[in-house]
Amino acid sequence: MWSHQCSLAPTKSDGSKIPRIRKASATAAVGSVTDSVGYSAMLNGMRMDDIGQVASKDALILKLGECLCKRFGGDPEQFNYIRSKMRLVAKLLIALRKSSGDFSTLSDYIVPTKFQAVLSAAKECAQLNATGTEYVAPSSAVKSGGIIRQLAEIKQSNVEESSFNVS
């Protein structure tokens, strides 16, 4: 479709075609003002129930939302997707807190020694049945694995950034 010539396409004063840009946000610089405005708009639209409260207070969940906003260039059409990812992680954190009995941050659980606790919390969020053969929400189980990997990468990148800043 992009290669077809359209008689209605905008042209410059010399008659040459103006190249099309798929999204205006793709040309914005990373970390620009539009990113922060989009990120704050996405957070303002989040439902503030128990899950939303947890998502809006945990630093790693907020960093995940920020990274996803940057990836999508602050596109408002993706805000519901980003919010759902943040809410899924918040549910995971709530399950972790309930099983451990403390109020640690998500960053405290993204360590190799807590892998089994995170795994059992992910199974609880996906509602594994009593026999251990079926999930009530199988897509939640699949998504949890990918999100946990993303969170580990975000946590690792934050540690590397902070180690460069220390003088």
Short description, anyone?
This protein has one domain (31-165). The chain has helices at residues 33-44, 50-57, 59-71, 79-100, 106-109, 115-125, 138-165. The chain is built from 7 helices and no strands.
What does it look like?
The chain is mainly alpha-helical and 167 residues long. The protein contains seven helices and no strands. The protein has one domain. The radius of gyration is 21 Å and the shape is elongated.
Figure out the total of helices. Answer: 7
Q: Helix/strand/pairing class, anyone?
A: mainly alpha
Q: In whole angstroms, how far apart are the ends? A: 53 Å
The count of DSSP E runs of length 2 or more, i.e. the number of strands, is 0
Weakly predicted, low-confidence segments: 21-34
Order of H and E elements:
HHHHHHH
How many domain regions? 1
Mean pLDDT: 79
User: What is the helix fraction of residues, given as a range?
Assistant: 55-70%
Strand content: under 5%
| Shape category | elongated
Task: Profile the largest sheet.
Answer: none
Rg result: 21 Å
